[in-house]
Each structure stands twice: as C-alpha cells, then as structure tokens.
Amino acid sequence: MADITHLSIATQTASGLPISRAVLAGRWLFLSGLLGGDLDQGLDAAVRGKAGMPLDGLPRHRREGDFILQQAARFLEASGSHLGNAVRLDQFYPSAAAVDPYHHARKAAFGAFIPPSTSVLAEELLIDDAGLEVSMLAVMPGYGMEPRRSAPANVPVPQHSGFAAAALAGDYVFVAGQMANNEAMSELDKGAYRPTKAIWNGTDIRLQTEFLITARLIPALEAAGSSLANCVKAQVYLTDMHDLPNFMDVWNRHFTSNPCALTVVATSGLGFADAIIEINLLALRDDGATTKTIIEHKPSSAMRLGPAAVQAGDLVLLSGLYAADADGLISTAAEARSVRHLGVSARHQMRSILNAASEICELAGTSLANTVRAQHFYDDFKGFYPSQMIWQEMLPGQPVPLQAVRMPAHHVPGCEVTVDLWAYARG
C-alpha cells in the first residue's frame, strides 16, 4: 500500500495511461507536468484563443501561463494549501518566446514571493504547440514548514524573473537554478570569464562550474544555514553534453567525500546567452534535525552520475537513471535498436531503469509505488508510449506523476531517456 495520495488522475483515452498531476505525501504536495491543456484534446480553447481573432486579448503565452498557474492553485487549494506554500518551480519551454509572458503570469499569481525557480529550453513537449510545462513542489500547512525567503548576497536574480534565489522550509533549503552571469545579466561574471581572444587560459565549462559552486551555490547555502556537505540533490543542465567529463571532474573535487544525488541532462538553451551550464540544489540545514543518508546500490553504478540515492528525512532522492552498463547502452536495448520504431529498445531501457529504481527505493525503506516526482528526459518521443507502459507493467493501475520533455541527445549513445525520480518514505 502506497503512503501517497494521487489527488488528480487523468487517463489518456487512446493509450490508457493513467497520469497523476498532483500527489500528496505527508507534508509535501507535488504537482507534475502541468500544461496548457490535456493529452486528449491538446491545448485548451482558452489558451488557443479564437482562430478568427488571433490577436484578441492577452498574449497567447500569457494565457497559457495563467491557465497552468490557475490549475496549480486549484490543486493546492483542494488539498488545503496555497501558492504561498510553493517552494520550488521547474519550467521547460520549446521557445524562449514563451518565457517573458509566463513571467508576467507568474508574478500575477504568486505576488511578492516567487519560489526558487529553474527554467531551461527543451526540444519539445507532449502537446503540439505547447509553450511551457511546469512542475511545482509545495508544503502543507500545519507542519511548521512555511517557506521563508533567503536573500544571499552576491547571488543575483534576473530582474524580470523575480524569484527567490533560495528559500527555506523547515530543515530543507531550495536553491534556484544558477548561471554564471553577472548581476546585470549583461555578460559572464568576471570569475567565470575566459578572454575571448585567449586560445587557452582555462576551459569554459570548468570555469563556469567552479564559479557556480564557489561563488553562487556555496554563498546561497551558507546564507540559509547549509553547506555543500548537506546537499542532497542537484540538477545540472548542460548546453553541450561533450562538456560532461570536464564538468564531472570539477564537480567531484567538491563532492567526492560527501556526494549528493545528481542528474545531468542536455538542454536546448539557457536564459543567458553565454551560460553553458545551470545548476539547482536541494539541501538540508546544518543545524537541523533532518539528516542526510547516502544509499548505495552497486548494480546501478553505470546507470547514473551520482550516488544511487540520498535520503533526506521523508524524501528519497535518486540520481538520474539511464539504461547503461560499463560498456554503454544495455545489450537488450542495443540489440533491439534495429526495430526501434516498434519501441522495443525503449521498453527494455525503461524496464532496466525502473527495476533499478525499485531496488534503490527498497534499500531506503520505501517502494517504487511511493514515487512522487518522475521527470522523464527523452531524446526522442517515439519511445514515450512503449516505455511508459513499463510503469503499468510494474505498478498495474497506478498513475505516474509524470513530467516528460524532449531534450537533445543523451551522453550515452542509444540511451533514449533519463528518469529523475523522487520517492516518499514515511517517517
């Protein structure tokens, strides 16, 4: 029996896939994959507007942002919470044209406190012509988790975005996605800058990674009473996956002795032209009662870039998983690539991922059935439906708290999807 409650279940008619948009897990509420419509009808009529009056009313993407955030507000209110209790936002856009109109919608919805946010460009969303997809994490009243803004010095926030650079909720610290821009968003910060005429004198990805860790993430954590040692989860977006080896070399110098769960995926672009990396963090307060426990799982060591998982109180945070072994794509999936249009390889890949995730969850004292957040980063949506059927194979009838976006190619040739999964472990 799962310890979570799915508050919103929509079954996609043609596929029969049950999808959950809102999951209540104790003091947490997870909203996943919110779009400006549904997977049956596509974009809502209120978002599309009138075909004969295309310029009537608010801009198209502003309507889309309003629709999504109104949907989020309804989910929160139905559960007894509200937008003021949101502590994290993740946004994906196929085009930068949607970002500013959405920011206007976000400011109107949240008011003075916009929670820590990460926004990146994606190749494609599940609904044709959709301009954005949003996921949100909020806390429930009555647990002493009311969010508090942290304003670390020298950690800039883009003026038109207006989100909190960091926020606290109980023992948890949420740090917004950080790039290596200066405060004015006019150029790279001097600490991450390699002179354009220098043939050598540093490597861009190494400079930006080191700068983000030392000049952005550490100050943000310290201002909230945390530290790198108490980081429990990091998401990293790279504009070029060829930068992965250099990124990992710098990252591991800071985290080898006390790693955090890590997911690294490619992105189609970031909000600052010279940025090639963006990082967000979840951490614990150093003086809090909640402790960090690293979960080991040797069979999945080639399927991830960080530890199998980190448990932080009632949250189990897995590193992003993909279907690889020491030699690359798992053999069952590689052998099926000649019939990839049937989705056989994608099915093998997802089965491998979910089997590993299930074992990792069990080691942390929970189960795959307690999944509260499942971000799927595909490099080709052809494998989406066959791979999603594996969730139903493993958890028959249970809805998936699904977010799915298409991103540029994976760093392991042939791997079609990375799954970033969080599970709930009732205390």
Structural class: alpha+beta
User: Strand percentage, roughly?
Assistant: 25-35%
Helix-residue proportion: 10-25%
Instruction: Give the low-confidence spans.
Output: none
The outline comes out as: globular
What's the CATH C level of the largest domain? Alpha Beta
Overall domain count: 3
Number of helices: 8
Assign the CATH architecture of the largest domain: 2-Layer Sandwich
Largest sheet: 7 strands, mixed
In total, the number of strands is: 23
pLDDT averaged over residues: 94
> Could you state the CATH homologous superfamily of the largest domain?
RutC-like
Separation of termini? 15 Å
Question: Can you tell me the CATH topology of the largest domain?
Answer: 60s Ribosomal Protein L30, Chain: A
Q: What can you see in these coordinates?
A:
The chain has 427 residues and is of the alpha+beta class. It folds into three domains: 1-146, 2-Layer Sandwich (60s Ribosomal Protein L30, Chain: A), CATH 3.30.1330; 147-290, 2-Layer Sandwich (60s Ribosomal Protein L30, Chain: A), CATH 3.30.1330.40; 302-427, 2-Layer Sandwich (60s Ribosomal Protein L30, Chain: A), CATH 3.30.1330.40. Helix content is 24%, strand content 28%. The protein is built from eight helices and 23 strands. It has helices at residues 45-48, 60-79, 99-110, 204-223, 244-255, 331-335, 344-363, 384-394; strands at residues 5-11, 18-25, 28-34, 37-38, 42-43, 86-93, 117-121, 124-125, 133-139, 148-150, 166-169, 172-178, 231-238, 261-266, 277-284, 292-295, 309-312, 315-318, 324-325, 328-329, 371-378, 402-406, 417-424. A seven-stranded mixed sheet has the order 8-22-21-23-18-17-16, with helices on one face. Strands 1-2-3-9-6-7 form a six-stranded mixed sheet, with helices on one face. A six-stranded mixed sheet has the order 10-11-12-15-13-14, with helices on one face. Helix 2 (60-79) runs parallel beside helix 3 (99-110) and helix 4 (204-223) packs parallel to helix 5. The longest helix has 20 residues, at 60-79. The protein is globular, with a radius of gyration of 20 Å. The mean pLDDT is 94.
